[in-house]
Design brief:
This protein has 283 residues and is α+β, with helices and mostly antiparallel strands. It contains five helices and 15 strands. The model is unreliable at 1-6, 10-17 and 278-283 (pLDDT under 50). Its EC number is 3.1.3.64.
Length: 283
């Protein structure tokens, strides 16, 4: 499964057997009932006290290859109950299955590295049911990200260059635009996206990373009418610790406030950070 092999899932009573080897599969066919075929396992979802589901990737689309790693977009996910048959009409199961099959999730195979940025490790919680028993979940489950991946091959004369753009959506402080704003106590900002431009030529690679997110302050826009929201900012003393965590934990960067005219919000930001930060802010 880790190497992108199309696998078979078999079920006997309340246990499962996974095999990508035709010979071993044949030995178990008589004792196990085939449930589904899959390209990988996402993890185990704890639905309720008595119900758990194994999430199986049943449809993928190959996006391309980067650094000898094959990247796949998840197009279909099946929920396999680890107990008795469940109600397939449950709206929560349907909604999550639709979300997981929306084409926004990706995983890669072939990487020998165990390094994972947990900021973008979308199915991290689904690995816990195995890890709590001391089982290495990475040998069973794929690691997924949410975002977008585009890979293109460019030919310049007799030379071949591979270009890729990867956008990774953070797992922290998620939510819709007007409901989740600014930073939290841990220094995570809303709508944080890391976009990487990757260029690969022969054995050389070059990468350029940009990030964007909500303004790293405690702020909100109460109200429902778009365009009439008034900005509410907390005091400097309350915001400073969270802002410092964001900058320290993430990176050294230049902040760009996307304001095209001297609005009240732009003036408030300028006054908040003061002239000492003027060189780091472009308004």
């Amino acid at each position: 499964i880790q190497n992108g092999i199309f696998a078979h899932v078999f079920h006997q009573s309340f246990s499962f057997f996974f095999s990508a080897n035709d010979e071993s599969t044949a030995e178990y066919k008589k004792a196990y009932t085939k449930v589904t075929d899959g390209y990988g396992l996402i993890g185990i979802w704890h639905f309720s006290k008595d119900e758990n589901f194994l999430l199986v990737v049943t449809g993928v689309l190959s996006v391309g290859q980067i650094s000898n790693c094959d990247i796949y977009r998840v197009t279909a996910v099946q929920f396999v109950s680890l107990r008795a048959p469940f109600d397939t009409a449950d709206s929560r199961v349907i909604d999550l299955q639709r979300l997981m099959s929306s084409g926004m999730f990706y995983f890669a195979t072939g990487s020998s590295s165990d390094e994972t940025d947990f900021l973008f490790f979308r199915n991290r919680n689904l690995h816990f049911p195995l890890e709590r028993y001391g089982i290495d979940s990475n040998k069973w489950f794929v690691r997924m990200m949410c975002g977008s991946v585009q890979v293109r091959t460019v030919y310049v004369g007799n030379k071949t260059v591979k270009l890729a753009i990867l956008s990774r959506l953070s797992c922290r402080r998620v939510g819709t635009r007007f409901n989740v704003r600014g930073v939290d106590d841990d220094g995570h900002v809303a709508n944080f996206v890391e976009t990487e431009q990757l260029l690969s030529y022969e054995n050389c690679e070059a990468s350029f990373i940009q990030v964007r997110g909500s303004v790293p302050l405690f702020w909100e826009q109460p109200g429902l009418n778009v365009g009439s929201h008034k900005i509410k900012l907390r005091a400097v003393e309350a915001t400073a610790p969270a802002f410092n965590r964001f900058v320290t934990d993430a990176f050294i960067c230049v902040f760009v406030v996307l304001v095209y005219r001297r609005t009240r919000f732009a003036v408030m930001l300028w006054e908040f950070f003061g002239e000492e930060c003027a060189l780091n802010w472009l308004i």
